[in-house]
Amino acid sequence: MSHDGPDSPDARNGYVLDDQIGFLLRRAYQRNSTLFADLVPGKLTAMQFALLFRLAQDGPASQNQLGRSVAMDAATTKGVVDRLVTRGLIRTSPDPGDRRRHLVSLTPAGEALTDEAVRSASLVSEATLAPLREKERETLLRLLRKIC
């Protein structure tokens, strides 16, 4: 729903909310989040899934490394890690190479849920991009990577 020109009833000094990148990204994210909540098992949030997937992919990591690998700040990472520990999906243990650091790793329950969730997460991506043709999907993903 695009509005054309400054004569549009919604335009204020040439600003049209429906044409702004932040507004459109938020709407796209809301759509993706709804699909994620509906399709991914275990009541995982997208951030929880990202941490679990990264641990499944790369193995144990420090909390700091883990957060950076999924573009989360330290405070958010700590909260997500704490919630996943409480749910029994990950565990922390002292790093044998550095006593000041703890390693985060998947529990067997975390591994099983991650395996199941990966299949569903692929469906979320497919459903999110469904309105686009293949070439448009490739372009969108390429452009998003460029601005990230």
TrEMBL record:
Q: From which residue to which does any coiled coil extend? A: none
Q: Which UniProt keywords apply?
A: DNA-binding
Q: Which SUPFAM superfamilies match?
A: Winged helix' DNA-binding domain
Query: What one GO molecular function would you report for this record?
Result: DNA binding
Tell me the Gene Ontology biological-process terms attached to this UniProt entry: response to stress
Organism expressing this protein natively:
Primorskyibacter sedentarius
Pfam families, A to Z: MarR
* Domain HTH marR-type per the UniProt entry, residue ranges: 18-148
The name of this protein is DNA-binding MarR family transcriptional regulator
InterPro entries reported for this sequence: HTH_MarR-typ, MarR/SlyA-like, WH-like_DNA-bd_sf, WH_DNA-bd_sf
